[in-house]
Amino acid sequence: MTHTAAAVAAAIADRLAHPDQAPTAATDDANRQHLAYGPTGIALLHIERAATGLAPWQRAHDWLAASTRESFTSGPDSHPFYGAPALAHAVACAADQLSDSYRRGLDVLDRQVTADARRRLDAAHRRIEAGQLPALAEFDAIRGLSGYGAYLLRRDPAGPVTRAILDYCVRLTDPVTDSGERLPGWWVPTGPSGRPEDRFPGGHANHGMAHGVGAVLALLALAARRGTTVTGHHQAMRTILAWLEQWKAPTGRGTAWPYWISREELRSGRPAAAAPRRPSWCYGTAGLARAQQLA
To answer: Distance from first CA to last CA of the chain, Å, rounded?
Structure first.
């Protein structure tokens, strides 16, 4: 199985060896800034293969060059999977292996990511002070402060903005009261789509590693393992772990967690019965188990 997986990965990498010979979708300008769909994500594939000695570095260089032929979006319209922060992640992965490469460009990207993280932190604390519930995009890994924190933990592990994000994560675990009900601080007023949904009146608590509180736990755990902690750090981890312990469910094949908890489920104290769900890191047992293992 391992040999087959390696062969498939090599075949995909070979098909995407150079931007000029790649399928059109891989270089489409509409996808250019997306880490999930565009050349920065393909560059990551080649960076990981080069870092393990499986392929030449030139492929990674070529894809990073293709990514940066035009400017990248920064500021409010960007996030860890789109725009300058997404590019920063790919470039940082390459720079980790090639210490003398990309330094000037990465310094510029670091400043952009740091400035954006500060802006997002200011908005998040204003939201908390106003007694409002958060949006998923405020704190998740894909678009929010957990994603920014993961990047900055790598680039500046004990820096002031890294620590400020950890302070925010701690504050996010403080309970809130909404419509007379006590809720975890990461409760959002929408459905998982980020928009109001009829099936989620009163919002929900999201457990995803990509989109929910799993990312917050993982970031706090990774920071603690690196020796970077803030006041209330370990208690915040315990709060999330206790929540996950409350909502875990036996399946006959091991423990699983619902993707999310609705207001009705919160009131009843038990999740509604659900059909088996796909195994994935973004939602479900794989991601949450890893977050808890780190913690």
So the answer is: 30
The answer to whether residues 134 and 216 touch, using CB atoms and an 8 Å cutoff, is: no
Q: Scanning the structure block, which residue is given the tokens 């109001």?
A: 196
Q: Say whether pTM exceeds 0.85.
A: yes
Burial class (CB in 10 A: 0-12, 13-18, 19+), 48: middle
Going from the C-alpha of 254 to that of each of 187, 242, 269, the distances in angstroms are 27, 18, 21
Q: How many Cα atoms are found within 13 Å in the side-chain-facing hemisphere of 57? A: 9
Cα dihedral sign, 226-227-230-234: positive
CA distance linking residue 110 with residue 96, whole number of Å: 14
Angle at alpha carbon of residue 162, lines to 87 and 101, rounded to 5°: 40
- Determine the Cα–Cα distance for residues 123 and 76; give it in Å rounded to an integer: 11
E strands, 92-137, where?
Answer: none
Q: What's the CA gap between 22 and 19, in Å, rounded?
A: 5
pLDDT exceeds cutoff 70 at 274: no
2 pLDDT band, cuts 50/70/90, is low
Chain position carrying tokens 């419509």: 179
**More confident site: 29 or 38:** 38
Contact 43, 91 (CB under 8 A): no
